[in-house]
Amino acid sequence: MRQAPYELYYWPGIPGRGEFVRLALEEAGAPYVDVARMPGGMRAMASLLRGEGTGLVPFAPPFLKDGDLVVAQTAAILAYLAPRLNLVPEDDPSRAEALQIQLTIADLVTEAHDVHHPIASSLYYEDQRTAAKKRAESFTKERVPKFLGWLERVLGGRGGVHFIGDSLSYVDLSAFQIVGGLSYAFPNVMARLARRIPLLLALHDRVAGRPRVAAYLASDRRLKFNEEGIFRHYPELDAPGSHSGSAAASRRSAPVKRARK
Amino acid sequence: MRQAPYELYYWPGIPGRGEFVRLALEEAGAPYVDVARMPGGMRAMASLLRGEGTGLVPFAPPFLKDGDLVVAQTAAILAYLAPRLNLVPEDDPSRAEALQIQLTIADLVTEAHDVHHPIASSLYYEDQRTAAKKRAESFTKERVPKFLGWLERVLGGRGGVHFIGDSLSYVDLSAFQIVGGLSYAFPNVMARLARRIPLLLALHDRVAGRPRVAAYLASDRRLKFNEEGIFRHYPELDAPGSHSGSAAASRRSAPVKRARK
User: Fold this and answer.
1) Which residue of B has its CA nearest to A127?
2) Main-chain phi, psi angles of B230, to 5 degrees
3) Among residues 168-227 of chain B, which lie with CB inside 8 Å of chain A?
4) ∠ CA B174-B175-B178, rounded to 5°
5) Cis status, amide bond into B198, omega within 30 of 0
6) What is the CATH topology of the domain spanning B6-85?
7) Are A119 and B131 inside 8 Å of each other by CB?
8) Nearest to A213, CA basis, from A86, A24, A14
9) Is the pLDDT of residue B188 over 60?
10) In chain A, which segments carry CATH 1.20.1050.10?
11) Residue A214 CB-half CA count within 13 A
12) C or N terminus of chain B, fewer CB within 10 Å?
């Protein structure tokens, strides 16, 4: 049995990209420390980002430290961890397919971020709202349906239960997270899409009900989606509510259905 | 020896993301068919994108067909191909590091694209020029220096010759391509950065001089950078020319130094 815990480094306070790694570690029951959320952890993370640690200096969080090895980039972390956590089959084709789906999920995550930061990550949302509104129209009408439609189709082509092989993989966990994130950020968009993605929604619920995941979700280790993260609920970027009726309404601001935190 | 050629599928006419795969296949001297550039190839690509082939339906080109296996997503294709082409070391840590650097290069490629398409890929550049100009300021002043500075530092930390291990890897080939792409799209930005990235520029030149790469670059299989692709030379998005002098000049349009195709 493995003794030394994995060290996960990610911004405290948001689920963000770190959450995809956390879900894999939690589902596997793997020992890990969520370093930046511990006392002194932010200093430790900053030190590694300055290159004061072993291994390859990370470009950005999240990164995982496993002994002297440092792996950054969410999909690279998962590709490294999954065989060790029994969250991907052994064969090369399965691993290539898992990585391929994960990278498409990663693209969706990047686009979900860029909806509220279309000009620059270094600027406030409030300083790029006009562009954000335009990007949101394309994201919610074209991109989300395309990404989720593709995931639904892939899942359906594999029997509807698991994305890879005949048991749970890290890809299933990541799909759970994006369904949750998009439902938080774009509830109206997701309500409209629901009947087109029954398998994805069922997968989301199955994952949420797995004993270790359920215990994790109920714990304070699980961070809530919020407006500092990647999936942000800005009602003006969501589709209009269903009572708005006409197609033209989608060009107007969405009704505020939930207070912005 | 392998007999059946790999099949690469990518949009004809632009180097784009397909080029990262092409460079690996060319350097390795691997047999491959660039399908969409052959007669009838676009129909074949469209058919696979509709899900009429074996394997996982690709979300988007590029994708690689190896027998019945279909792998999409550039970094996933390279992670699958590299061990077969002798373009990555055998051990897990090296492969994790290679994927991590490749994914950071992939992020840079996405941002290089989004500079000219900050609102939507489905709109023309001309319809998002205002946002593009703003995004370009952040991209050229913050992001390019950060990405290339990180790559330079990683390369320097490994002796300055290869990113991974002690021989050429697919990461070196991809770094060659982004240096070329950025130099094409943002010549003024790259001229200013040159003295800060000597190792990357030297790597670029070494890769260009490798016999198989040099033969490839001189062939008509190599597609030129152009304004349909990811790295586009729009002078108004580049930094001002060096003769512009003052820092304030960087807020004005860059002088047109090269005709836009």
Assistant:
1) B134
2) -85, -50
3) none
4) 90
5) no
6) Glutaredoxin (3.40.30)
7) yes
8) A24
9) yes
10) 92-210+232-251
11) 6
12) N
Kindly state the average pLDDT of the residues B7-15.
97
pLDDT in tens, B192-244: 999 999 999 999 999 999 999 999 999 999 999 999 999 999 999 999 987 54
pLDDT greater than 60 at residue B113: yes
Task: Name the residue of chain A whose CA is nearest to B57's CA.
Answer: A154
B128: which 2 tokens?
């998002």
Unique residue bearing structure tokens 């890809």? A171
Q: Which CATH class is domain A92-210+232-251?
A: mainly alpha
ipTM of this complex > 0.90? yes
Residue carrying the six token digits 């198989």: B212
Chain A residues near residue B118 by CB distance under 8 angstroms: 118-119, 131, 135
Give ranges for CATH 3.40.30.10 in chain A: 6-85
CATH 1.20.1050.10 fits B92-251, yes or no: yes
Q: Does the CB of B134 have a partner CB in chain A at under 8 Å?
A: yes
Beta carbons within 8 Å of B90's beta carbon, 6+ residues apart? B83
Give the predicted TM-score (pTM) of the model: 0.92
Q: What is the location of CATH 1.20.1050.10 in chain B? A: 92-251
Burial of residue A47 (CB within 10 Å: 0-12, 13-18, 19+) is: exposed
Q: Is residue B19 within 8 Å of B177, Cβ to Cβ? A: yes
With cut-offs at 50, 70 and 90, classify the pLDDT of residue B55. Answer: confident
B26 to chain A nearest CA, in Å? 21
Q: What is the pLDDT of residues A137-150, one digit of tens each?
A: 999 999 999 999 99
Question: Phi/psi zone of residue A219: left (φ > 0), alpha (ψ -120 to 50 degrees), beta?
Answer: beta
